[in-house]
Specification:
3 strands, 6% strand, 3-stranded parallel beta sheet, mainly alpha, single chain, 56% helix
Length: 209
């Protein structure tokens, strides 16, 4: 509707409760060529829930070429209670096969089981991606099947401020744009490119209430 001739976007505002929920309308309007003046910036992708979901997405797309920083992120979100020393092992790991090798080498049976559990979660996500899962499919698997949503809910509960922006809001914001780009392999570059576009001087105003 906003892209139709004769509609003046300068007289339209979109309001949400928190900044991250502006992600879907901002990207959708930009894709349609509608000028947008928004308070949202690209650093929204650095928020805990979104950053963890994107790390899981990258791991799912290529479990045989793991990035140490991504592995460090996903071992914390959702938390499996790893000891801090596990980071030294993970820093040298580059593949799912290598991760399973770590599980075999660690003497601590409890920690070895946690590594095997993490490897199983990566394998689950990787299989879904290999079988043609869409961006939404993978993000919902990461949220519900792997447990990132529950982890973010626990994190929100620990803050005690129900009026503040929540990590679950951030996951919902990411899911809100998933259908706009169903190819998970190109989703993150597309999203970052969209958010990197300079803000318009006028146009539809996107802000929080």
């Amino acid at each position: 509707w906003l892209a139709e001739p004769g509609v003046d976007p300068h007289h339209v505002a979109v309001l949400t409760r928190v900044n991250s929920l502006l992600l879907a309308p901002q990207v959708a309007l930009a894709e349609r060529g509608v000028p947008v003046h928004s308070v949202l910036r690209s650093d929204v992708l650095d928020r805990t829930g979104i950053a963890a979901a994107l790390a899981w997405l990258r791991v799912a797309l290529d479990p045989d070429d793991l990035i140490p920083d991504d592995l460090e992120t996903i071992r914390r979100r959702p938390s499996r209670g790893f000891p801090n020393w596990i980071s030294k092992w993970f820093s040298r790991c580059r593949s799912l096969h290598g991760l399973r090798g770590i599980s075999d080498k660690i003497d601590d049976e409890r920690v070895a089981a946690k590594v095997a559990e993490l490897a199983g979660a990566i394998e689950l996500a990787g299989q879904a991606a290999a079988e043609g899962a869409t961006t939404r499919d993978l993000l919902e698997l990461i949220r519900d099947g792997i447990g990132l949503g529950g982890a973010m809910d626990l994190l929100d509960g620990s803050k005690g401020d129900q009026g503040a922006a929540s990590h679950l809001d951030d996951l919902e914001a990411l899911l809100g744009v998933a259908d706009l780009h169903p190819d998970p392999g190109a989703f993150e570059p597309w999203l970052r490119e969209s958010l990197a576009r300079p803000a318009a001087d006028g146009g539809v105003t996107l802000s929080t209430v």
